[in-house]
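hey all, quick one before standup. I had two proteins in the batch that finished overnight and I want to keep them in one place so we stop losing track of which output belongs to which input. First protein below, input sequence then structure tokens straight from the run.
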Amino acid sequence: MTGEPCNLTPGELQAYLDEALPADRMARIEQALRDDDILRQQLAAIITRRDAGVHSVGEIWRRHRLSCPSREQIGSFLLGALDDAAAEYVRFHLEVIGCRLCDANREDLQRQQDEAAEEASSRRNKFFHSTAGQLKKKR
């Protein structure tokens, strides 16, 4: 499909380069790039501008992920320990923006919390069973 450009903004192409889009959106853009010469030229122009050191505030903001919540904030979100405004921002960032880096942090933290909960439950059971055995002996 050469000729008519795809409806992607320069910001979306920049986010594509930074791998800052949800996986399904990245895949659609990659397919569009395969099919559209003009879109590839637009992407090449963005890359050339970046290589020349020309950056907008928005590009710097996205590249350094200044809008991403910290790992600690994501952990607090999972524990329900954030105030309403902060929790809403983290939820929006994860669910609506679909930030893959923050989602990976969320998944990792959730896995750690699940493992810790399993470990604590196992430890409690061991203590209970060892204590129950001691109590039976005393009777």
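OK second protein, same deal, sequence then tokens:
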Amino acid sequence: MKSLLLQVFLILCLTIASPSQQRYPSDDPVEELRGFTRSFSEHMISNIDKPFCVRVVRGEIVVKNTPDALVGAIVQIRGPAEARRISATKTDRRGHFRITRVPQGKYAFKATLLGFQSVVGTIIVSNQAPKDSAIKIGMPAGV
């Protein structure tokens, strides 16, 4: 009986902790969200107005206004420009991420993690960006 209860408890925990893999529809009225993964708990989204200009899509995600790394955050980019191709990765144990083989161009991005507000914005990949340029996103705690 204890074993069965433990199994049910684990299944419930995994179900609650696992983000849904639904996507925002391609005709969503909020253009920044089109095609990106939608978390089942997502209800607040922060927008970073200033684009990140980088040579390579890499960086880190931390808790906003702290140096604390966020592990397992989903980072997605869509583009270049009007293209609807989405590439994604997750942050490692240090909050770092990298998406390889990203051609030059303008990309929309979205960062999501359960318990935090999602963050959206723009990334410009350019050979003119400084060699050591990186993306740093501070995700606010969810409300």
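Flagging for whoever picks this up: The radius of gyration is 17 Å. The first helix runs from residue 2 to 17.
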